[in-house]
Amino acid sequence: xxxxxxxxxxxxxxxxSYLETLATELTRRGLGATLQAPAGRIxxxxxxxxxxxxxxxxxxxxxxxxxxxxxxxxxAERIAVAxxxxxxxxxxxxxxxxxxE
Length: 101
Description:
Strand 2 and strand 3 form a beta hairpin. The longest helix is centred in the first third of the chain and has 26 residues, at 3-28. The protein has a 5-stranded antiparallel β-sheet with strand order 1-2-3-4-5, covered by helices on one side. The chain has 101 residues and is α+β, with helices and mostly antiparallel strands. 37% of the residues lie in helices and 27% in strands.
């Protein structure tokens, strides 16, 4: 396996790990969270508010230019540092909350 292939495999494993950790935190808050990893695409977490399924968003875990791993919204805005899944989950839950919640 080439160094590039090893690096890509390590990155994918790290992305999955961060997303799985976030999924656990989101599930604790009552949101649906499904890891999606289609071939040739960046893995993402589909997060859905079960009380209002129209409130849904994809979240990715990726390394920023500064070398720090972050959770990101699909529109390329940072949510929180990937080492702080609780903070990220709180922010995602706030954004995806129905107005009556």
